Amino acid sequence: MAALQVLTARPKRAVRLTRNSKLFKTIISAIRRKKGEHIVSLDLRKIPEAVADFFIVCEATSHIQVKAIADEIEREIKEQTGELPFHHEGFQALQWVLIDYVNVVVHIFQPETRRFYRLEEMWNDAGYLEHQ
Predict the structure, then answer these.
(1) What span, in angstroms and rounded, lies between the C-alpha atoms of 10 and 85?
(2) Whole-prediction pTM value?
(3) Domain ranges, ordered by start, for the chain
């Protein structure tokens, strides 16, 4: 029930983002700075049921790196845009950290967790772009 309340309490998206937005670019840059791997973005704007405009998905090879990437994203977004995440979770186990900026939701996985949940396959009708 708590998860449902989070979704219903979620702020409405006022403006659709693009991959050129400052928020999007700052997230990708922060992931790269902390050596995140296999970075992809899923464009969900044409999917009516989607809860965000984009998912950004990446991997980290350890608990320490998952936390470092998540911390860097939150620090850099706050510094560059003044925004704080609407919600974040996963900081206890550090297998899959989710950071929700309403229009963009970031997923930081350890490799085995990413393979298990197969998020990209679940949203295979979204536009897919790899970020080297």
Answers:
(1) 11
(2) 0.88
(3) 26-123
